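Summary for the lay section of the report: proteins are chains of building blocks that fold into shapes. Here we show the chain for 4Fe-4S ferredoxin and then a coded description of the shape we predicted for it.
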Amino acid sequence: MNGASANIEEHRTILEIQAKIDAGEAVVFTAEEISSRIRAGEEIGLEDVDVVTTATRGIMSGTYAVFSFKVSEPDSFIKASEVFLNGVPAVVGPCPNERLGVLDIIVLGTAHSVSDPRYGGGHLFRDMVEGKIIRVDVTTNEGKCFSVETCLSEIPFARLYATRHAFKNYRAFVNPGKDPIDTIFHALPFEGEFREMTFCGCGELNPIENDPGLETIGIGTRVLINGAEGFVTGQGTRSVPDNPNLTGFADLHDMVPEYMGGFVTSGGPEIINTWAVPIPVLSRSMLENILKLDSQIPLKLVDLAGRIPLCDITYGDVWDNADLRVKYDPGKCINCKVCPVAEACPMGAVSKGENGAEHNPELCFNCGLCISRCRGEAFRANLGTVRCEAGGCLRDIKVTLRQSDRARAVKAAQELKEQLLTGRFRLTEPVEKISWRE
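The coded shape description reads as follows.
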């Protein structure tokens, strides 16, 4: 690739690029592939790429699901007043469905079970997508209580909605104080005195990092949310021009369990989601952003308690040379009587077996917390150390937990690429650009 063609158009349209895909002439790269080529010294011009598939996977609290399904015969009760799914509370309504025996309910992704402090909306949604039977407890406005069992295939309407997903850029966190803090940004009480650091964000893979001007991401843009085809509906809460995020929706029936789930923090259960977004490369100015590497993408290190900025680093500081996947060597397990990894794992991906720890890679989020907890060093991955001048001192701060799973973001972007090239996924023009309220 030499980027030297004089005939390439300066501006292209999404329809023109989709036509090239249909003709089998388009060049599609994942964000990881194009970044690898840049690191290898290649020069990439507008004529060398038509679409870049991007993705991000991480904790995305702004999530809820809407369900509508039958729980009894008509006229068996007037209206429901309280509903719990596997102990997770639902908001009843907005439709009362008087005397129909049908529930319309909303479940927040961050809702916590009343019976299990380590189970929340994110766990519930994944269990449902996996086809598991769930228990529905209903209290009617007449005071009658009853329970039924159901599963996702018996729920005709089940849709997941995003109120704030896929932030262009998030934060890295430290606790400068002396006392540990319970927080959603750590699976354990966050140790003080700069002893550890956590962070969120997939850097150069992130959809909006590749299209910060939202030139191709707009209202009506087709995307994959947890592997299911969905659509962008606009900007999310706390979205600002310098750091936008997105709202959207997709059908739970079509989602892939591997891309979603619950993540237990010291502040309670949180929810994981995965977005994969195609970025048609329309102009040279768009390409400039696509070619940026992690080391060119800022990441602000902040005080956990007050979100006070302490130091400016980059995503290169946390992802360059880091291992994306955590590896487990059962031969090194010393079979602790009480496994500290199993107790700490925010995904429940590690359990205590008769012969030592048992690791479930399908559940594993690659957060890396197990590395600092395992006494036998059976879990390993390079999470990195960040050098930063904070609190008047130059400090080397260890990354102990990642709240973004870049390994599966890479996989999601690759799957989107394959769907584009085979015609299973088609690019869509936004119905309208995303606008900003002052």
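Put simply, here is one thing we learned. The longest helix spans residues 406-422.
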